[in-house]
Design a protein that fits this description.
The chain is mainly beta and 272 residues long. Strands 5-6-7-8-9 form a 5-stranded antiparallel β-sheet. The longest helix has 24 residues. It folds into 2 domains: 158 residues, no CATH class; 70 residues, Roll (SH3 type barrels). 21% of the residues are buried.
């Protein structure tokens, strides 16, 4: 009986693995609708501090053909794909546009992000990912990976975080703004501001409390130091100013917010 169950699972594994390999390397890529003119000049010549105005005065996101990676990767950075788009960002979408360079962790990290409407184009590592922020595979990043394999990711925007979900099953990477910096996270399960409960001395993660609307927080500074409150919203500042967190009757900066599960998590000094 055990051998039969094991053989069923092994057969299922082989089926899934072979299906993935067929999709990754044998399934034809979509029809390439990329505007070939973006490869005529080098994108390094562009001033990325001069961002297009999203005032609705010119083209919409739908007016510009979807771009794809040429072959297995471009030889030089293409010109911006959404340069002529002025459609305002969709409701709830944070402006992440610009040229981003790694300053910690992956210091070789360099990518360009373009946005208009709910469309985003991420260009970097010799690849172009052109997609919509609607959480569907149909409008997701259908392109090639570093090994020239086919891949398909759905991209959603929630709680001011842009998350890539491989085949809409697994979170792979996320991007979010933190003041003037962009946080690129290859383990989006845990995000800045979340609280983790770990065991000692083995340091295993026992609990994970997310920093999100509805979370219970203990305030470590400001006018309400020592109080408990429920998070009702957050405001990301694209500047040197601290990000802000809103509660029912007041607000404070994110540095003063410590997420807990309940008031019992806060140690109280013994009374003498």
């Amino acid at each position: 009986m055990i051998l039969r169950i094991a053989s069923i699972f092994f057969g299922l594994f082989l089926f899934l693995a072979s299906s993935f390999l067929i999709y990754a390397f044998l399934v034809p890529r979509p029809l390439d609708t990329t505007d070939s003119s973006i490869f005529l000049k080098d994108g390094k010549t562009v001033n990325y501090c001069d961002l297009p105005k999203l005032d609705g005065s010119s083209k919409l996101a739908d007016d510009i053909p979807k771009a794809y990676t040429p072959g297995c990767g471009y030889s030089h950075i293409p010109m911006p794909i959404l340069a002529e788009c002025s459609e305002p960002l969709a409701e709830g979408v944070v402006d992440m546009r610009g040229l981003w360079k790694g300053i910690s962790g992956r210091k070789d990290f360099l990518e360009r992000i373009e946005q208009c409407g709910n469309r985003v184009v991420v260009t970097g590592h010799n690849l172009i990912h052109d997609f919509r922020l609607d959480g569907t595979l149909r409008n997701g990043a259908r392109d090639v990976g570093p090994a020239c394999e086919n891949f398909n990711s759905a991209i959603l925007f929630k709680d001011e975080v842009m998350t890539f979900r491989l085949f809409n099953l697994f979170d792979t990477v996320s991007r979010r703004m933190d003041g003037r910096n962009m946080i690129f996270d290859e383990n989006p399960e845990y995000r800045t501001g979340d609280s983790l409960v770990i065991s000692l001395p083995d340091q295993e993660i026992k609990s994970h409390y997310k920093f999100e609307d509805g979370s219970v927080a203990y305030l470590t500074g400001g006018n309400h130091i020592g109080e408990m409150a429920t998070v009702r919203g957050r405001e990301i500042k694209r500047s040197s100013k601290a990000n802000e967190v809103q509660f029912d009757d007041f607000g404070t900066i994110a540095d003063y917010v410590f997420v807990v599960s309940s008031e019992s998590d806060i140690p109280v000094e013994a009374q003498s």
